[in-house]
TrEMBL record:
<keyword id="KW-0812">Transmembrane</keyword>
<feature type="transmembrane region" description="Helical">
    <location>
        <begin position="162"/>
        <end position="182"/>
    </location>
</feature>
<dbReference type="Pfam" id="PF14093">
    <property type="entry name" value="DUF4271"/>
</dbReference>
<dbReference type="InterPro" id="IPR025367">
    <property type="entry name" value="DUF4271"/>
</dbReference>
<keyword id="KW-1133">Transmembrane helix</keyword>
<feature type="transmembrane region" description="Helical">
    <location>
        <begin position="59"/>
        <end position="82"/>
    </location>
</feature>
<keyword id="KW-0472">Membrane</keyword>
<feature type="transmembrane region" description="Helical">
    <location>
        <begin position="138"/>
        <end position="156"/>
    </location>
</feature>
<feature type="transmembrane region" description="Helical">
    <location>
        <begin position="94"/>
        <end position="114"/>
    </location>
</feature>
<feature type="transmembrane region" description="Helical">
    <location>
        <begin position="194"/>
        <end position="216"/>
    </location>
</feature>
<feature type="transmembrane region" description="Helical">
    <location>
        <begin position="13"/>
        <end position="32"/>
    </location>
</feature>
<protein>
    <submittedName>
        <fullName>Membrane protein</fullName>
    </submittedName>
</protein>
Length: 219
């Protein structure tokens, strides 16, 4: 069987991004030690959601740091997928990563802005604020697990296809689990607005990522 080398480009850029993520995590832990500890125990304890959701406005700095971490980690994963399956011999890795990070960050920030505007228009500011806090808390937490996988993928040389498929399956399962938890915590609100919630999922949770995928594969 002929051995195919997936990655022909150095990982200097990814090393710098990984170090940046680690630096941001250290800063978050130093500036917000108790909140960081509660956040790390998010899936094993409901303390972060129960207590912090009532004071999410005071968590602005911590949330910003973790959102940046999430966007960097997601961009690393997308970059690794692109380099593995679309263009293994790409040379302009810096340009590609910058495009991915810019596109993904713009998508996330645009979604948050649109969601807040919708909440304001329909006088649902508080439920939307709580929903967004819960959703981004789960996604930021899941991205920490993905970060470990990304480090392995970056430095493993030629990871097998099954590693990517397994990672994607586990990522999808974690996201579904988080949505189930969010829905259970907001069951009354979602049930009374079920049609709009389904419309929201299609318009703001599915379609934007399809658009992002189309943009990336055309780079």
């Amino acid at each position: 069987m002929e051995i195919i080398e997936r990655y022909s480009t150095p990982n200097d850029l990814m090393t710098l991004v990984i170090l940046l993520v680690l630096l941001l995590l250290v800063i978050a832990k130093q500036l917000y030690p108790y909140r960081f500890e509660d956040f790390i125990a998010l899936f094993s304890s409901g303390k972060y959601m129960v207590i912090k959701s009532r004071e999410h406005k005071t968590l602005f700095g911590f949330n910003v740091l973790m959102l940046i971490v999430h966007m960097l980690i997601a961009s690393i994963f997308i970059f690794v997928l692109y380099r593995a399956f679309i263009d293994p011999e790409i040379q302009e890795t810096g340009v590609l990563f910058l495009r991915i990070f810019t596109a993904y960050s713009f998508l996330i920030l645009l979604k948050v802005t649109v969601e807040k505007i919708i909440g304001n228009i329909f006088d649902l500011d508080e439920p939307i604020e709580n929903y967004l806090f819960q959703k981004h808390s789960y996604r930021n937490f899941i991205s920490l697990g993905l970060f470990i996988v990304c480090i392995f993928l970056v430095y493993s040389g030629t990871p097998s296809d099954w590693v990517f498929y397994l990672t994607s399956a586990l990522l999808a399962a974690a996201l579904v689990f988080s949505y189930v938890n969010i829905i259970s915590k907001n069951q009354g609100f979602i049930t009374s607005n079920l049609f709009y919630f389904i419309l929201y999922l299609c318009a703001l949770e599915i379609a934007p990522y399809i658009i992002l995928y189309k943009l990336i594969i055309r780079t």
